[in-house]
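Bug #77: duplicate submission created two jobs. Keeping one. Sequence:
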Amino acid sequence: MHRKDIISMIDITAADVWKIFKLTDSIIQKRMSMEDYTPLKGKSVALIFQKPSTRTRVSFEVGIGQLGGQPIYLSPEEVGLGVRESIPDVARVLSRYTSAIVARTFSHKDMEILAKFATVPVISGLSDSFHPCQILADIYTIWKHKGSVVDVTLAYIGDGSNNVAHSLIVGCAIMGMNISIATPLDYSPNQSILEKARDIALKTGSRIEIFSQPSQAALGADVLYTDVWTSMGQEKEAEDRRKVFKNYQINNALIEIANKDCLIMHCLPAHRGEEITNDAIEGPNSIVFEQAENRLHVQKGILVFLMC
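Kept job's structure:
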């Protein structure tokens, strides 16, 4: 049975993930063979964005169109989610107009309210707590390169309290991947999310470790992953964060500590010279732009999984 929503990683099962990945492979193959595949024909998808985006908006709009559907973008000013109109009202109205809702919100609570009152699938394009579409695309990319996700160790370097780190911790636990987080103590992952991930890891055999030094996490890693030090909405903290995170950078020295064939990943946008050097993102181990492309492919798999 298909899930109604994908708004976080916590309630996604490994079986769900493999179904999405198989759908993704099938959709890619159909497009490569020029097969007419339009499962969303006659369906519209609302895109509610409280914050701007390049990859999330473009990949969803293009993907929905490629599947035969109609994307309808609603800017922050147009929808005024929770300000101009209550979130329950927006959810119920859009459920009568469209076949699914993609939302990009500041607060995860807003995402939960939207999903509670919507009667069509709700997909998170990001909230302050989770970024599930990003992490599903990341795991898919790793799987394609490594041939497996079991016993693969991912080292995340940077802010352990942001939505990408939280989603990676849970996503790796679900899939039986090992994850090492290197982050300053004051930026450790949310304890509740970490505990849920550890509970999942007990069943899947995943190893979750939190370190204070990047070199500790990177040692023997198969994947080195980072994100910006300052996320959207934290701009006033930017200067302080640069000081705190100055040593939490993926660079050639850190790459040498990891496994020889380690993959370099970044969810973008990248601040070159801060969380990652130009040499690292442009180097032979980098799969950053393939990772970005796979957002398009995996999100199409998610749309078909939930809507068809």
